[in-house]
Amino acid sequence: MKRIIVFILIILVVPCVIRAQQSQPQEEALPEEAQQQNWTKAFQDAETKFKSDSQPDSIPLFQQLIGEIVEQKVKHGLTDPEQMLLQKSLDYLGQAFYNEGQIEEARSVFLKLIEANPNYRINEDEVSPKIVSFVNKMRQENLGTISVTGEPKEAIIKLDGVQVGVSDVTGIFSLKGDHQLEISKPGFVTQTKPITVLPERNQKIPFTLERSSSVGYFVTYPKGVELVMAGKSLGTTGGSPSDRAQRVATEQNLNVNDFSSEFAVADLQPGSYEIEFRKACWESQTRKFTIEKNDDYRYEPIVLAPSFGFVNITADDPQGNIQIDGDYIGIAPKQKIQVCSGKHTLKIKGPRGKYEKEITIAKGQSLDIAARLNPSLTFLGLVGPSSVLQSDLDKLTAETTKQLSTLQNLNFVDNSGGTNRESITDSIRQIIDSYADNKPDKDRKAKIQELCNKVESDLLLIGYSPKESLQRTVNFYLLSNWSSMSDMRTIQVFDAAQWNSFKTELDYEEPLFQKRLGSNLIDTDITQGPVVAQVIMKTFTDGQPMNPGDVILAINDKNVKTAGDVRMVLAGMQSLDKVDLTVKRGASQVKVPITMLNSPIEIRFDNPSLLFNRQLVSFKKVMNITTNPVEKNIALLNIGLCLMHFGEYEAAYDQLRQIQLNRNPGIGQGTVQYRIAQCYRELGLKKEAADTLNDAARYSQNTVYSDDGPSLSREIQRAQQALQ
After folding, report:
1. Secondary structure letter of residue 229 according to DSSP
2. Residue 157 lies in a domain
3. Strand locations in 185-225 (E)
4. Measured distance CA(390)–CA(395) in Å, rounded
5. 654, 691, 693, 643: which is closest to 673 by C-alpha?
6. Could you tell me which of 447, 376, 439, 441 has the C-alpha nearest to residue 413?
7. How many Cβ atoms sit within 10 Å of the Cβ of residue 455?
8. What is the dihedral angle through the alpha carbons of 402, 405, 407, 412, rounded to the nearest 10 degrees?
């Protein structure tokens, strides 16, 4: 026979605490450990006051603490330390009220203490005998007991919905008054009955439960195994080891404490059944069994075998942080990371970008991952007018996902079927609708940034399929975290050639530096090729010079007719340090060997083939990873130019004003000041534009576009004339 003490915690707060807290704003709950620490500190402060000469000052402190525990934690259940804090606080508060002569307040508090724990005892060695007698009398006036005995044994006994023991039990303390008693056991019909508890009385309650079905009892190794029958989860094993586990633990040399308690599968009628036992990192097992008649059946314990594999990870980013299924693993490289067999989500994040992949590991497998971290592009999905069928949008979405999954320089993430679908779809429509005037918009930028943060991505791709396209054409909008504007491309979704062109643009990263000839070229209508207008930097020998007026006919025997041809040919020769020019000089042709210079490059913000949000992300990546001040400043310059392309001149100015680029000749601080002056002009600040152009004019050897680009002085003169 067992003597059980019931802990019935009734959620009541001292009235003055309720009134005080009703006027307070709701605060976000602290993590449980931090909250426990706060309450312990508050209790210690109140206890110190209670034991001092200022005991009355402890009353509001205990009231506040009790109110917080009841308000924020009781609805979730209390841990043992939290229960002790509550009970001890009620004890001290009741004593303080009693000592102040507030007897009714003391009675109310001590009654709540008895309700919280009928077995709580006042420390008679430290507390006044009057208070001890006062509390004991309240216990006699308010507590009674019940005893519950019957068949079958080990039935669960609940009083007012709270489990108080397993049959047979005697001496269950309870408050006086009416209560609901429930007696249950798997495989039997549950009994419920109202009872009335009288003070200082013990009520005996017999019971007999009627058998209703069979129950299968299972023990598992290890604990935490999920049981699944007919596709439905029956629950997870746990608890203290069953007595039946000892034999199997001894035979298989296993720790008996890792076995579960008996797990009851109830409501089984005669027939055949199959249960799957599964747990992450363990090999699943299936058990088939047959019920002949209604009874209790105890089956042989289920012993699962561990199932692990290993992942070896390297990355091109020395600061790549590895996460597997959201758990932080460490910084790449990492070898022999033990993971459960099955499917996992691998993410590596670093200054260069992100790598994300779904991986599958078999038992005993060792999987090697060489990760290349890239900026992320997240596809959020497609929308269309209400007349467009969802099935048509689904087909377009599937083809889009298929095509984008082959990107090489972007970490593609498909979120077209992700969570919060309705909310994201509404945001997509709002963003697309807002491009009607195609102007920068701060609210749109905030919405784009919110989406980028939500899906942890640098770039977003959304699309709109108009009705008149017969659901084959999509207007795609490429968005980034740093601009309110989009790059728009219209794609025939089932046209492979158009996709190849679009994917090439998405993968392309504009270089910050490029090998150049060192001379400024111009096109004319009367020459066979571009003419050397000015030699900016010496890239030739004195014996074989390049002179102003020379006409370039070929580079390494590849014919060129325009300055644009020269740029294209050189773009394909960036792996070379030297090239040979075929030059027409007067009536003759000569060969001029050139040692190319590595020049900073300004992005051409009027280039129609560039996706400028894509380039923004590329330049931001450089800012994250480089320690070279020149590279950082050239990246900032190009970020500013991208924003100027979008007409976001205030944002461009914020980037450009940070640059310190003391270089001569070529791209330098004068180039930066010239770009700032352009921003001032577009913002309507003519005086500031004129002053900044005058400042830029001091850098007479600077150029635009590249170190061998057009003279800055000439560009400044044109800009000054335009301001007049």
Report:
1. E
2. yes
3. 191-197, 202-208, 214-218, 220-221
4. 9
5. 693
6. 376
7. 17
8. 130
H or E, element range at 268: strand 263-268
Show the tokens assigned to 553.
Answer: 């006919």
Domain residues for the domain of 111 are: 2-120
Q: Which of 20-34, 170-184, 694-708 has the lowest mean pLDDT?
A: 20-34
Cβ-contact 382, 462 below 8 angstroms: yes
Q: What is the spatial distance between Cα 167 and Cα 179, in angstroms, rounded to a whole number?
A: 18
**How many helices (DSSP H) and strands (DSSP E) are in the chain?**
18, 37
Token representation of residue 255: 């720790």
* Domain boundary pick from 275, 303, 331: 303
Residue 125 within a domain:
no
Same domain, 394 and 499: yes
CB 279 within 8 A of CB 304: yes
Mean pLDDT of 130-155: 91
How big is the chain by its Cα radius of gyration, in Å? 39
Distance between CA atoms of residues 276 and 226, nearest Å: 8
The domain that holds 665 is classified in CATH as 1.25.40.10
Which residues sit opposite 337 in a β-bridge?
311
Structure-token pair, residue 96 = 């303080």
What is the chain's length?
A: 724
pLDDT in tens, 185-236: 999 999 999 999 999 899 999 999 999 999 999 999 999 999 999 999 999 9
Same domain, 231 and 318: no
Residue 581 sits in a domain whose CATH number is 2.30.42.10
* Interatomic CA distance for residues 95 and 583, integer angstroms: 105
Looking at the fold, whether 624 and 716 belong to one and the same domain comes out as yes
In this prediction, residue 468 carries a pLDDT of: 60
pLDDT of 471 reads 57
- Domain CATH code at residue 345: 2.60.40.1120
Cis amide prior to 168 (ω within 30 degrees)? yes
Q: How far apart are CA 350 and CA 345, in angstroms?
A: 17
Q: Residue 457: which of 613, 286, 646, 263 has the closest Cα?
A: 613
Residue ranges of the alpha helices (H) in 508-588? 563-571
Residues 312 and 298 in one domain: no
Give Cα separations from 271 to 234, 262, 294 (angstroms): 18, 22, 10
Task: For residue 477, tell me if it sits in a domain.
Answer: yes
Look at residues 565, 600, 635 and tell me which one is the last residue of a structural domain. Answer: 600
Contact status, residue 331 vs residue 388, Cβ threshold 8 Å: no
Residues 390, 496, single domain; the answer is yes
Looking at the domain assignment, is residue 183 inside a domain?
yes
Here the tokens at position 219 are: 């023990």
Tokens at residue 212, please?
A: 């209703």
Q: What is the total count of domains within the chain?
A: 7
| Model pTM score | 0.63
Three-state DSSP class for residue 585? strand
On whether both 390 and 489 belong to a single domain, the answer is yes
One-letter amino acid at 258 equals D
H-only helix segments in 117-182: 129-142
Q: Both tokens of residue 229?
A: 């029958």
pLDDT in tens, 559-572: 999 998 998 899 89
What does the alpha-carbon distance between residue 703 and residue 715 come to, in Å, rounded to a whole number? 9
DSSP state string for 453-496? HHHT-SEEEEEE--GGGTT-EEEEEEEETT-S--EEEEEETT-H
| CB contact at 8 A, 174 and 6 | yes
For 470, other C-beta atoms within 10 Å of its C-beta total 10
Can you read off the two tokens belonging to residue 444?
Answer: 């749109």
Q: In what order do the strands lie in the sheet with 308-315?
A: 334-340, 308-315, 366-371
- Other CB atoms within 10 A of residue 686 CB: 12
Do 389 and 460 fall within a single domain? yes
706, HSE (Cβ side, Cα atoms, 13 Å) = 22
- Give yes or no: residues 595 and 700 share one domain: no
The enclosing domain of 242 has a CATH number of 2.60.40.3070
Residues 6+ apart with CB under 8 A from 102: none
DSSP state of 366: E
